[in-house]
Amino acid sequence: MNIKGQTLYVRIAALERVVVAFSGGVDSSVVAALAHRALGDRALAVTAVSPSVAAGELDGARRVAAYIGIAHEVVSTNELARDGYRANGRDRCYFCKTELYDVIQARYPGVTVLSGANADDAGDWRPGLRAAAEHGVVHPLHDVTKPQVRELARRLGLPSAEKPATPCLASRIPYGTAVDPETLSRIDRAERNVRALGFPVLRVRHHGIMGRLEVAEADLDRALQFEAEITDAIRAAGYEHAVIDREPFRSGRLNVEPARPAASR
Question: Per the count of CB atoms within 10 A, which of 165, 204, 215, 241 is most buried?
Answer without folding.
Answer: 204
